[in-house]
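The material for today's practical consists of a large collection of protein records. Backbone structure tokens are a discrete shorthand for how the chain folds in space. An example says more than a description, so a record of this kind follows:
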Amino acid sequence: MITKRIIPCLDVRDGQVVKGKNFTDLRELCSPAELAERYSREGADELVFYDITASHEGRKLFTDILRETARRVFIPLTVGGGISQLADFERVLDCGADKVSVNSGAIRDPDLIAQAARRYGDQCVVLSVDARRTASGYRVFAKGGREDTGLDAIAWIRRGVALGAGEIVLNSIDTDGVKGGFDLEMLSAVCQAVSVPVIASGGAGCAEDFLTLFRTLPRVDAGLAASVFHYGQVEIRTLKASLKSAGIPVREVEI
């Protein structure tokens, strides 16, 4: 049986992990390398590292910080931010990333997904989608939720998978940082649309939210969160023990 993954997310700005609400009011927390090392010890299955202002500022991702973070962990690391061409994949992978997340860069040039999948394999290409509800349905937003692209989120996700994306991270702007639970309705629509792994992001407020996620949507492969882990409201080792007790398959945490 395929185990469900628990994935802490490191949103990085100016070399520090930050967290806000609905993609705004960001507050600095600590060093990404220190936090990544802690999560690796506590039993996280993977880590996601986003340089959240790289695309908005039109610059490349900070590789020195990424190298230090990758050096300290021994679990898969997905990296995104400022990925706009194939050379960015090479640079990030050389720094220690296992998978590369594309968002704004893929919206500008969808063929980037296909190029990367051909060169590195679809398992390396993660399509990250920031979406929120509008009067016309779920819409894709770019540049850290600042720019309404006008794209229908479900149609865009289908297209990304057809081009070669091997995994989807759905970031619900509506539930981000609210801690009221994952956006089950939006996630359900995505799971029905594609067959690749889907990672739920945005809204976790307690351990019960992960249990509800996996019980309600068995097709969801992983739960990604930031605040509840950063502030110690949910401890990964305890969360995985609770999931296991509830019959949700998870990877054992080494003592």
